[in-house]
Amino acid sequence: MSRWEISHQYTGITDVMRMNILNAINIAIDTYGKSEMYKIASDVKRWLETTSGKEWCVIIGERGRYQCASTYYDSKYLVVKELNLQWTIEIFQQIP
Fold it and tell me: Would you tell me the crossing angle of helices 15-32 and 37-52 to the nearest 10 degrees?
């Protein structure tokens, strides 16, 4: 998966879960297209809440053009750079 660069992966996100998340993002990008960041984030959030509990947050921004201040629960936190689209994607659970 040379399209992805993992910036942060805390222990609450297993390697298997990370691979499933990246697959869900790929499917959402293919479904909605690269101009629909909000729909992609919403779709991945909905999938995470169905498979991994409630209150997930998915933030997608163009690299270098946004900042995020957030509070995550425990160690369920993942930051991925999508290299083709130049996106940074932050994923975290807010509460258990």
Answer: 140
